[in-house]
Sequence to fold (142 residues):
Amino acid sequence: MREYLWRHVVTFDETNLVGNVYFARFLHWQGHCRETFLARHAPGVLGMLSGGGLVLATTSCSMEYFGECFAFDEIDVAMTLRERWDSGLRMAFDFRRDDRLVARGEQTVAALRRVGSGVEAVAVPDELVVALAPYESVVRAT
Fold:
């Protein structure tokens, strides 16, 4: 199993008064990692999102913290596909500084399309399924 790696350099505006990274930034970085993956490996999905035909809605996310990060730390965010089903995905994120795990998170995403004033579940686009296949870490859910 491979990991999709996205590197981030922490800036002062991402730290709090104490000088460490504010906890919510890690969730923000999950989004950056996911969006960069789409841009590099599934650009057609970005077109579907901007055209309004597809919605990738985060339905849950979580974080565990094991160490602090500070301004100018280089953080490697490693994303893997934990689980996949017809209309959704669950991804895992490991946050490492100097190859040491400082945080771990998960994010569940539902594939939807807008219908009238609501949404309905749709299949995860094939392009995204193919792009994520090398990063899959567990068997698919039914």
Notes: The CA atoms of residues 99 and 140 lie 29 Å apart. The first helix runs from residue 24 to 41.
